[in-house]
């Protein structure tokens, strides 16, 4: 299959790095933090209880599903209040969480593949999570990062994909969204009119009979190889700084290595 890809929107969790080890680290780090700063909270909410509280906060607050930071603060506030701790601990506890959340270990192929992809087309991060690419040290590969929290709605809603396309300065059909999740990433992007690429690292079976991803690879390197093979003879992507749509928004960094 061959089509024009002028820009890419890229999911983060479980696409560039696995989330499960991060989730386990967060539980551990927060518990150790509570043991040191609020032993009563640690006693009342050992790791499993804290996890249950967080899951309940998530279930009870569907209006906040696009804002995982707000949900985390709600959980921490409830745990501190219920255990009689001062709410002056809320932001320091959140900061302990956030430091652990941004310690990521990328998949072995991910950083090299990301650099190869970003050398060809502008890449924007589009994520429902609350990772901070500046803290992680990967922001130099990205034109910008758009989170569901700042946008106000989460994938698979079309509006977050469309907002990213506007900032990239390209029509929906010229932007390829890349991610691991069949519904949030692939189906969401396809319904929003973007091209879609499923990064299926686990060998999962595709279960949306009504649509198919435009591309599917078992690593991000597979996508970098495909771009090398298919973009080589296409005219270069528009210079973002000569494109009035993009310069009006002013968010793009200087492309590291314009294709
Ligand atoms: Mg993901």
Give an overview of the whole structure.
This protein has a six-stranded parallel β-sheet, sandwiched between helices. It is built from twelve helices and six strands. Helix content is 47%, strand content 10%. The protein has 259 residues and is α/β, with parallel strands linked by helices. The protein folds into two domains: 7-17 and 105-249, Rossmann fold (3-Layer(aba) Sandwich); 20-101, Up-down Bundle (Four Helix Bundle (Hemerythrin (Met), subunit A)). Residues 11, 13-15, 179-181 line the site of magnesium ion.
Output the keywords.
alpha/beta; 12 helices; Rossmann fold; 6 strands; single chain; disordered C terminus; six-stranded parallel beta sheet; 259 residues; Four Helix Bundle (Hemerythrin (Met), subunit A)
Spans of 5+ residues with little confidence (pLDDT < 50)?
238-259
- What do we call the CATH topology of the largest domain? Rossmann fold
Order of helices and strands: EHHHHHHEHEHHEHEEHH
CATH class of the largest domain: Alpha Beta
Strand order of the largest sheet: 3-2-1-4-5-6
- Calculate Rg over CA atoms: 20 Å
Q: What proportion strand?
A: 5-15%
The helix fraction, in percent, is 40-55%
**Ligands in the structure?**
magnesium ion
Structural class: alpha/beta
Q: Describe the oligomeric state of these chains in a short phrase.
A: single chain
Helix count from the secondary structure assignment: 12
Question: What is the annotated CATH architecture of the largest domain?
Answer: 3-Layer(aba) Sandwich
Summed up, the domain count is 2
Give the beta-strand count.
6
Fourth-tier CATH superfamily name of the largest domain = HAD superfamily/HAD-like
State the shape: elongated
Terminal Cα span: 21 Å
């Amino acid at each position: 299959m061959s089509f024009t890809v002028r820009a890419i929107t890229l999911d983060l969790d479980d696409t560039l790095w696995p989330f499960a080890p991060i989730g386990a680290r967060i539980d551990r780090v927060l518990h150790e933090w509570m043991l040191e700063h609020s032993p009563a909270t640690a006693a009342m909410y050992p790791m499993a209880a804290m996890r249950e509280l967080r899951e309940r906060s998530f279930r009870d607050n569907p209006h906040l599903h696009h804002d995982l930071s707000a949900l985390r603060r709600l959980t921490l506030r409830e745990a501190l209040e219920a255990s009689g701790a001062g709410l002056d601990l809320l932001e320091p506890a959140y900061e302990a969480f956030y430091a652990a959340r941004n310690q990521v270990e990328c998949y072995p192929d991910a950083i090299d593949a990301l650099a190869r992809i970003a050398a060809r087309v502008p890449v924007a991060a589009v994520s429902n999570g609350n990772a901070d690419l500046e803290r992680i040290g990967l922001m130099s590969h990205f034109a910008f990062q758009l989170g569901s929290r700042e946008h106000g709605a989460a994938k698979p809603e079309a509006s977050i994909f469309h907002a990213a396309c506007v900032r990239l300065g390209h029509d929906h059909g010229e932007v390829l969204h890349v991610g691991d999740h069949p519904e949030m990433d692939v189906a969401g992007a396809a319904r929003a009119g973007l091209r879609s690429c499923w990064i299926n690292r686990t060998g999962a079976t595709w279960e949306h009979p009504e649509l198919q991803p435009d591309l599917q690879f078992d690593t991000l390197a597979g996508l970098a190889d495909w771009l090398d093979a298919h973009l080589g003879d296409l005219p270069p992507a528009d210079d973002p700084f000569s494109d009035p749509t993009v310069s009006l928004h002013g968010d793009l960094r200087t492309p590291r290595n314009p294709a």
